[in-house]
Write a structure and sequence with these properties.
- The structure holds two protein chains of two kinds.
- Chain A is of the alpha+beta class.
- Chain A has helices spanning about 5-20, 145-170, 180-225, 250-255, 425-435, 440-445; strands at about 30-35, 40-45, 55-60, 65-75, 90, 90-95, 100-105, 110-120, 125-135, 230-235, 240-245, 270-275, 280-285, 285, 295, 305-310, 320-325, 340-345, 355, 365, 380-385, 395, 405-410, 415-420, 460-465, 470-480, 485-494.
- Chain A has a five-stranded antiparallel β-sheet. In chain A, strands 17-16-12-13-18 form a five-stranded antiparallel β-sheet, with no helix packed on it. In chain A, strands 22, 23, 24, 26 and 27 form a five-stranded antiparallel β-sheet that branches.
- The relative contact order of chain A is 0.13.
- Chain B is mostly helical.
- Chain B has helices at about 5-20, 25-50, 60-85, 105-130, 140-165, 170-195, 205-215, 220-225, 235-250, 280-295, 300-325, 360-390; strands spanning about 95-100, 100-105.
- A two-stranded antiparallel sheet of chain B has the order 1-2.
- In chain B, strand 1 (about 95-100) and strand 2 form a beta hairpin.
- Classes of the chains: A alpha+beta, B mainly alpha.
- Chains A and B meet through helix 1, strand 4, helix 2 and helix 3 of A and helix 1, helix 2, helix 3, strand 1 and helix 4 of B.
């Protein structure tokens, strides 16, 4: 019933290579994850399909050369569908790089899924699970040559059926050798006229059906577009945020009152001053009755701000609320708890900035290979922190349970990604994925949820890949001696 | 005067009848029958494959059977048309029709059209998957185009058999009539099968289910009853339909299979069979009995009686049978009501054996039932007209 499936998959892969990610999550749908499958340290990239059901490309790099085989399998993140894995696929080892494995997986559903990876090697077996937000991002229009071919074939079929009916009405009941008379010809004309009406009716109904299917699919695409962050300012400094989607079924299915904590907070709110991105706040609003969030803003200058607000729903699916807000001068208090801020230079155009001065006198350095940055290339973004004396600092401590937080923002705001040392997956989703691994422990997943008082190395890294070319600003946040410090870097991506 | 025949043609017809009594089934009918059987097996296997294993490729055996169907019908009928067109000594030349400068049996043109429709559906389906994702449902525009192609081949075979049958007599005609029954079974299997998303047991206490069955089944029952000489034609055809369906219901669970796509909601160890067949055999028996008693009536009066009897008797047996299918008593190897596709969550009404109402008010239910009654009558009338036309097919 489903011809050319293999060609579908191959064409889908080709299309993935040239596709522009849609504005969702936000504009950065691929998943980057770094963690441990038992004794094996892996860097995993899941390139999600543009249409669902569709093919995800899985790339796994092992840090060591002792991996013999890698199996991959998709499941639901939680609930029904997370207990019966299908037959796993073997990822193929690269001929050029024996530590690099690739495979393809069909993601059959939208929503919170996971890709479970089982490693077999010299140190025995290991397992990890990577949460994947699966959602349809777009539809593809029919290419002109194919549209031309289809029109020709449909014309042949349409005219063919009319001609067959006409010929049948004229001649089918004639005896051997008998020639059609006027009555036969008249009957044929009537049959042709009726068939033309039927064919046109069928074409009309088919087009209407196609339009309805297209509309349904586009509704599903719209469902997963980032909801709007509707903001109101109350009492001069209390910012209230409500999620609102264009899609009418969104609010019926997604309950903001049931979001789950993601590294200690229900919402991570980023306010970025526009147009230069020269100020940034990372705040943590609290949940109100009815699914709204509110935060007493700290002191802030008047300005036009971009809003990105990250939450994770009860099923483990991450949502980023997107909006803008014009704020007057806010006479708020000092930052409290895990809240943090930064101010500095506006984003640079078409150039990289590799060193960022920190407020405490030290500096943060982006340790990267020379050469141009490429879009869709999985990388480990490494940043080292130096004190005033130029030496690696000894006083880094966990910030919200992790060595650091990084936010990647494209200059046109079409991309926003909140990334951790474990990667672009939300930590709340990762905990749900981990719960499904038998006999596993947090350390086996390499979750980088570090104990609060532990001293950390002076270098922090984030697995990620820029989704498309352009200018990006990267905010890197670490905690030193109880103070959050933010390093800011600019990147031009080709 | 056109439309009349000469004395030579009368002699030729007598000779033809004499030949027809001892003739064997021509090769092109066997080719098209093989094409249809290949398509039936391939389609049933493919649907079960998608429900059990999920992932497939261009080269699965089920796909190969479907492609073979199109290729076999396309090549055999294409050759037959070319041979009849360019070989003036072809025995089919003066029992063929002409179209676009070609000559051949009407059924061959219809089969060739079906093969082109199947080919046209392939790039359309390919694009559909790329644009809207791999479909997990049967009813989509490219699949309907494919189904039209499949129906075209089956209908073409039917017309070819009819043309041969209506020129034949004696044992040869009886042999052809058996092929006729098989062909109509496959046609009804196609129309009932493509609507299976609406005929699941959870819908059997809703009017839409009965409307769908009335759209897809009575036309074939009436057609075969009017075109075949056998007084139990409708019963034989629906019995064969039920037997074919049961072959898949009981056969597929014998083949080991496990899902290769996820998420998986059902533990699958074998090919998932289709649902137990609907009880069309009972209304078909009633149809045959009533047909004899109403033979002298006008066609419309017959259609009203037979159409109404078909619907009423079907509701009378299927409604309580649905209760049985929902009950624990049906959860065994005979009725196979615990076999669900891997992608059906346990929370689904299907798994929980809960009826899904497709009408939300009694008035809506009864209006739709009334529509089903009208459709049943119309389909029977259409089947009668079609059957009578089919009796006249000679080419």
């Amino acid at each position: 019933m489903k011809e050319f499936r293999r060609q579908s998959a191959l064409l889908g892969i080709l299309l993935l290579a040239v596709a522009i990610p849609a504005l969702a999550h936000v504009g950065s749908a691929d998943v980057y994850y770094e963690g441990d499958a038992g004794p094996y340290h892996l860097f995993v990239t899941v390139r999600v399909p543009q249409v669902v059901p569709g093919v995800a490309e899985i790339e796994v790099r092992s840090q060591t050369g002792d991996v013999n085989a890698i199996q991959i399998v998709p499941l639901r993140l939680s609930g029904p569908g997370s207990t019966f894995p299908p037959t796993p696929d073997f990822a193929a080892r690269s001929k050029d790089d024996p530590q690099f494995f690739t495979g393809s997986l069909w993601l059959m559903e939208s929503g919170a899924l996971q890709v479970r990876i089982t490693v077999d090697g010299a140190k025995g077996k290991g397992e990890l699970s990577v949460p994947v937000a699966s959602f349809a991002q777009r539809t593809y229009p029919m290419q002109r040559p194919l549209a031309g071919l289809m029109i020709v074939l449909m014309l042949i079929l349409g005219i063919g059926v009319i001609s067959i009916v006409g010929a049948g009405a004229r001649e089918a009941s004639l005896e051997r050798g008998e020639t059609p008379g006027p009555a036969s010809a008249r009957r044929a004309k009537i049959a042709i006229a009726v068939t033309i009406i039927l064919v046109l009716g069928l074409v009309y109904l088919g087009k209407a059906w196609w339009g309805a299917e297209d509309s349904n699919y586009k509704n599903r695409v719209a469902f997963y577009k980032p909801p709007t962050a509707e903001t109101t300012l109350e009492n001069g400094n209390r910012l209230v945020i409500r999620a609102k989607s264009e899609n009418p079924t969104w609010s019926a299915k997604i309950n903001m009152g049931e979001v789950i904590p993601d590294h200690n907070h229900l919402m991570h709110l980023f306010l970025i001053e526009l147009p230069g991105m020269n100020r940034m706040w990372h705040l943590h609003p609290t949940l109100l009755q009815g699914g709204a969030f509110a935060d007493d803003l700290p002191a802030m200058p008047a300005g036009h701000y971009q809003v990105f607000a990250d939450v994770v729903d009860a099923r483990g699916f991450p949502w980023t609320l997107v909006g803008t807000v014009d704020l007057p001068q806010i006479n708020g208090g000092a930052l409290t708890g895990d809240d943090s801020s930064w101010s500095g230079e506006a984003i640079a155009s078409q150039q990289d900035q590799l060193v960022s001065q920190l407020p405490g006198g030290g500096r943060m350095i982006w340790e990267r290979d020379p050469g141009a940055l490429k879009a869709n290339s999985a990388m480990d973004f490494k940043f080292s922190v130096q004190g005033k004396d130029g030496k690696p600092v000894q006083d880094l401590e966990p910030y919200m349970g992790m060595a650091g937080h990084a936010e990647f923002v494209r200059s046109d705001l079409s991309v926003f990604a909140h990334v951790h040392p474990a990667g672009s997956v939300p930590m709340a989703s990762l905990e749900m994925a981990q719960a499904g691994l038998l006999g596993d422990t947090p350390s086996m997943q390499g979750m980088a949820m570090t104990p609060k008082n532990e001293t950390l190395p002076a270098e922090v890294s984030f697995p990620y890949g820029f989704p498309k070319p352009g200018d990006y600003r990267i905010f890197v946040q670490v905690k030193r001696a109880g103070q959050v410090e933010t390093g800011v870097f600019d990147a031009h991506v080709q | 005067m056109a439309g009349t025949i000469s004395i030579e043609q009368v002699h030729a017809r007598s000779a033809e009848r004499a030949d027809a009594a001892t003739a064997s089934i021509p090769w092109y009918i066997w080719c098209c029958l093989a094409s249809v059987v290949s398509c039936v097996l391939g389609s049933a296997w493919d649907i079960s494959w998608h429900e059990s294993i999920g992932r497939d490729s261009f080269w699965t055996a089920a796909h190969m059977l479907i492609y073979l169907s199109g290729v076999l019908a396309g090549i055999s009928c294409g050759y037959l048309i070319l041979y009849t067109t360019f070989r003036k000594d072809s025995p089919l030349f003066d029992v063929s029709i002409s179209m676009w400068g070609f000559r051949g049996p009407l059924g061959a043109f219809i089969c060739a059209w079906g093969a082109v429709a199947m080919i046209a559906s392939a790039p359309f389906d390919n694009w559909w998957h790329n644009s809207y994702g791999l479909d997990v449902k049967i009813l989509s525009p490219p699949h309907v185009l494919l189904a039209l192609g499949m129906i075209g081949i089956r209908f073409g075979l039917l017309v070819m058999v009819l043309a041969e049958m209506n020129r034949a007599e004696g044992i040869y005609r009886q042999r052809l009539e058996r092929i006729l029954f098989v062909t109509v079974v496959f046609l009804m299997g196609m129309t009932v099968g493509i609507a299976q998303e609406f005929t699941n047991r959870v819908f059997m206490h809703s009017a839409r289910f009965y409307l769908v069955i009335m759209i897809t089944a009575p036309i074939w029952v009436a057609t075969v009853a009017w075109v075949a000489k056998n007084r139990w034609a409708a019963t034989i055809m629906t019995a064969m339909f039920t037997a074919l369906h049961l072959f898949f219901v009981w056969g597929f669970p014998l083949v080991p299979a496990e899902p290769k796509l996820g998420p998986v909601y059902q533990h699958i160890t074998h090919l998932v069979p289709p649902d137990f067949p609907v009880l069309l055999i009972i209304p078909a028996i009633i149809f045959d009995l009533l047909r004899r008693r109403t033979a002298d009536w006008s066609r419309w009066k017959q259609a009203v009686t037979l159409g109404a009897a078909f619907l009423v008797s079907f509701v009378a047996v299927q409604w309580p049978f649905a209760n049985f299918l929902m009950s624990p008593a049906s959860r065994n190897r005979i009725f196979q009501t615990t076999n669900y596709p891997y992608f059906i969550p346990s929370t689904s009404p299907w798994v929980r054996n809960i009826y899904i109402p497709t009408e939300h008010a009694p008035a809506q239910f009864w209006i739709r039932m009334l529509v089903a009654l009208c459709v049943s009558i119309l389909m029977v009338r259409l089947g009668i007209a079609w059957g009578e036309w089919m009796r006249r097919i000679r080419r």
